[in-house]
């Protein structure tokens, strides 16, 4: 399977112990794209870090939302919360260890504000390495 | 077909009976003769969440289908044909219920299998295998491979205070020592003291991954250890840095989490 014709969306409780669900969903989507093990491994880590960052900066959130679409053989992953935040990202978010890790593992990572100023993080996975 | 072949293909003596079909009595004789085969196959699928009675019914139905569809002129022994048909029927039965037909395994078993398969494939292919390749190699469904990844890695930054504290280490302390490449990114510079505490090899792995942009496979080749090991060391190192930067109180909590993990 090369493409997700319909985006994947998952809502979970905004709690650290729900992050593993997002990890597994993202890893499954990466597996559909036939990404190699190491890339799938890193998608999981990046999703986890994004979740950690959002939970820390959005204490009023009830839900975390994960959305996954595909473009050019890579995944476009957006993770956000349902709690509007005026101040996003704060300097402390940009300086966080999680953000540093996300920047290292993904392409084009950015802080985005969704509807009503809901905070989100969006990034792309590395495209699969062409094998000879 | 030679006479010899003909005889070999009729080792179970079914052909003669088939030539006398569609006689009901002959059909019953065939059922009776091959029922033990169906029962035997049904029992091989026992213990996977379906009652043996149900499985036997499915297998019996498979046998009837096999009898109806068998062509004695195809040169295949009926026993072989029936076994394939009945097994197919049993597998379909499980599939229809959305269950995997594979032997159920515990998470630990799967994790071990995935680990071994990954190592082997990585060696054989010279690159990181895909999840479907691992699934095929380990004879596990893909979702089990992904679950096993979670189990193997156990990477879970459970802490919510993962941010660098504002009264954290001043930049001045980090400039001018250690590997200069670590200073290229501000984010990394601010955690340099934590990075300092990592073993040399782990620091090098993070450097190669995050600053040189090498893949895990390339790093594994460069350092001379397996990709699975690299994957674990990256996850562990990121976790260690995280623990380092979140203050003594959180570290205590981290220690008790680790304690809880061991239990």
At a glance:
The complex is a heterodimer of chains A (132) and B (263). Chain A is built from four helices and five strands. Chain A is of the alpha+beta class and 132 residues long.
Supply database-style keywords:
heterodimer, A: 132 residues, alpha+beta, 5-stranded antiparallel β-sheet, 4 helices, globular, B: 263 residues, mainly alpha, 65% helix, elongated, disordered C terminus
Instruction: Give the neighbour order of strands across the main sheet of chain A.
Output: 1-2-3-5-4
Strand content of chain B: under 5%
The end-to-end distance of chain B, rounded to whole angstroms, is 67 Å
- In DSSP terms (H or I, runs of 4 or more residues), the helix count of chain A works out at 4
Give a count of the beta strands of chain A, DSSP E runs of length 2 or more.
5
Largest interface: A-B, 40 and 48 residues
């Amino acid at each position: 399977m090369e493409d997700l014709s319909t985006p994947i969306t998952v809502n979970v409780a905004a709690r650290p112990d729900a992050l593993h669900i997002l990890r597994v969903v993202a890893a499954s989507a990466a597996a559909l794209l036939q990404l190699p093990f190491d890339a799938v491994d890193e998608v999981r880590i990046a999703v986890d870090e994004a979740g950690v960052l959002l939970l820390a900066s959005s204490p009023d959130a009830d839900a975390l939302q994960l959305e996954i679409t595909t473009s050019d053989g890579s995944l476009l992953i957006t993770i956000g919360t349902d709690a509007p935040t005026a101040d996003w990202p704060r300097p402390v978010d940009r300086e966080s260890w999680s953000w540093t890790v996300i920047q290292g593992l993904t392409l084009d990572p950015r802080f985005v504000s969704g509807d009503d100023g809901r905070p989100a993080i969006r990034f792309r996975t590395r495209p699969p390495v062409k094998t000879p | 077909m030679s006479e010899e072949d003909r005889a070999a293909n009729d080792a179970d003596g079914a052909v003669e009976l088939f030539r006398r079909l569609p006689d009901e009595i002959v059909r019953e004789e065939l059922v009776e003769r091959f029922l033990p085969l169906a029962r035997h196959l049904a029992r091989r699928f026992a213990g996977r969440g379906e009652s043996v009675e149900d499985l036997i019914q499915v297998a019996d139905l498979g046998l009837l289908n096999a009898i109806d569809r068998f062509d004695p002129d195809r040169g295949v022994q009926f026993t072989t044909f029936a076994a394939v048909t009945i097994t197919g029927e049993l597998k379909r039965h499980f599939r229809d219920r959305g269950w995997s037909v594979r032997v159920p395994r515990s998470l630990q078993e799967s994790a071990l299998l995935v680990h071994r398969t990954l190592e082997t494939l990585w060696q054989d292919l010279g690159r990181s295998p895909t999840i479907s390749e691992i699934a095929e190699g380990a004879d596990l469904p893909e979702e089990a491979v992904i679950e096993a990844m979670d189990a193997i890695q156990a990477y879970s930054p459970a802490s919510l205070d993962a941010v660098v504290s504002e009264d954290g280490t001043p930049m001045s302390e980090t400039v001018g020592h250690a590997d200069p490449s670590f200073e290229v990114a501000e984010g990394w510079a601010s955690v340099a003291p934590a990075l300092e505490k990592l073993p040399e090899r782990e620091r090098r792995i993070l450097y190669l991954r995050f600053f040189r942009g090498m893949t895990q496979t390339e790093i594994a080749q460069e350092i001379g250890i397996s990709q699975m090991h690299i994957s674990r060391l990256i996850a562990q190192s990121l976790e260690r840095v995280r623990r380092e930067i979140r203050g003594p109180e959180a570290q205590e909590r981290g220690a008790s989490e680790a304690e809880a993990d061991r239990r």
